[in-house]
Structures are given as C-alpha cells and as structure tokens.
Amino acid sequence: MADMTDLSGKTVMITGASRGIGEAAARLFAKAGANIALLARSREAIADLAGEIGDKALAIPCDVSRYWEVEAAVNATRDAFGGVDILINNAGVIEPISHIAEADPEKWGQVIDINIKGVFNGMHAALPLMVSNGGGTIITISSGAAHNPLEAWSAYCTSKAGAAMLTDCLHKEYAAKGIRAMGLSPGTVATDMQRDIKASGINPVSQLDWEVHIPAEWPAKCLLWMCSADSDDFLGTEISLRDENIRRRIGVAE
Q: For 89-107, how does the pLDDT look when each residue is reduced to its tens digit (9 = 90+)?
C-alpha cells in the first residue's frame, strides 16, 4: 500500500473497538484522518482510547446484541459527525468453547446474539443513513471458521457462517444503492481471543505456536485498504489475509 488511504472528513464506526483488531483499526483510521465512533461494552477501555485519539473520536458504550443500543449509537455518531460513511462489524466472541452436548444453551445463544444479530443490527441501523447520503462501506470481520467446522467451536463456526451470508445478502440488496459490502477473514491474530483459544487446548487452532499469529495491525491495514477504490474488484466477496497477494497489496508481505 504505497500511500495511506485518506479518510479526511469521513466517519467510521467500529464495533468491538476496545481491543484487538478493533483497537488497532481505530488508531489507523484516525491517522488516516477519519472521525471514529468507538463501540464496545468495555466503557473504560474505549474512553481511554478516545482520549488518546482526541476530538475526532467518540466513545459509545454499546452491546451490539441489543438493537436499540446500536441504533442509539448510530444516532449519536450522526449527531456528532454528520453521518456514518464506514461501518466495521468487528465485535465478536468465541466462548463457549465446548462440545455441543456439553455447551451451556444460554451462552451458546449469546454467541449468536453478538456474532450474527450484532452484525445485522449494525447493518440495519446504519443502512438508511448511508443510503440517504449516497452510499457507504460495510465490512464484517469473518473467519476461516465460517467455512470449516472445528471441534468445540459450533457456536463460533455457525455464527461466522451466518455473518458471512449477511454480507452476501447485503451486497445483493444494496450494491446498486452505493453500499460497498465485503468480509475480511484475517486468519489467526495475536489477540486476547487467541489466548482463550490456546488455553482451551481442544482443536488444532489451539495447538498453533504463538509466533504464527499475525499482529492486529495487519488486518487493520487491510480494513483501511478495503475502504479505498483500489479494493473495488473485491466488492461482495470475502478477502482472506492468508492470501499472499493480498498481503503484498497492503504492504505486509514478509
């Protein structure tokens, strides 16, 4: 990526912005000149991050599984910055890591509420504003787990598959109205979620050496690139950061 995408005057809403990919993306998008709406349940963490970024950041405590909270966050962002140009559906959870018969049904359902309903809630709340303003970009963090079953990950695999289908449906319904819909499968990233996976010790992903996990800054760079016209060939698709061609294109190839 020869030059950083210029997002001056644009407003980006990031869910799950308190840590990991969301936090890294917030910092990078701010450097690119964007206004940033930071959404997460971790009130103190996003407040601290907003304090670091400065006047261009707005911290909005939000549980994405609750539609009214997401709708209120979109309205607050519009009131503060005039609109929402980019939505990054990043919020996601993986627990419970357990076999189907042993899974807590309530906790299993919470994964669906956050990882699927949370994505839908963001899309549903932001779309009218984006369409009325002539378009926008909606990127949802996907996973290889959306396409391949993994032992003890039934909730996560199912939810990520559903979120990937939401991206497909969004592209089919709204591409003609100026909505740029894409998914990003980042691969294994050195985040707190990956620590939970490793601690479980259940499936092959938990056995990976920590050194193979990419830093959160890599998917952040990819997200920024996906907001540029250079990525238009990939609209309606899921980009994999495991792809060496993509890594070269965004400037992180080793």
A: 999 988 888 899 999 999 9
77-84 contacts, C-beta under 8 A, 24 or more apart:
77/11, 77/13, 77/37, 78/129, 80/35, 80/37, 81/11, 81/35, 81/37, 82/11, 83/11, 83/129, 83/130, 83/133, 84/11, 84/12, 84/13, 84/37, 84/126, 84/129, 84/130, 84/136
Cis peptide before 96 (omega within 30 of 0): yes
pLDDT, tens digit, for every residue of 205-240? 554 444 445 678 889 999 999 999 999 999 999 999
Residues designated catalytic: 156
CA distance 195 to 210: 9
- Is 36 in contact with 30 (CB distance < 8 Å)? yes
58: number of Cβ within 10 Å: 21
Rounded to an integer, what distance in angstroms lies between the CA atom of residue 11 and that of residue 141?
19
Q: Are strands 136-141 and 86-89 parallel, antiparallel or unpaired?
A: parallel
Model's pTM, two decimal places? 0.91
Do the beta carbons of residue 42 and residue 19 sit within 8 Å? yes
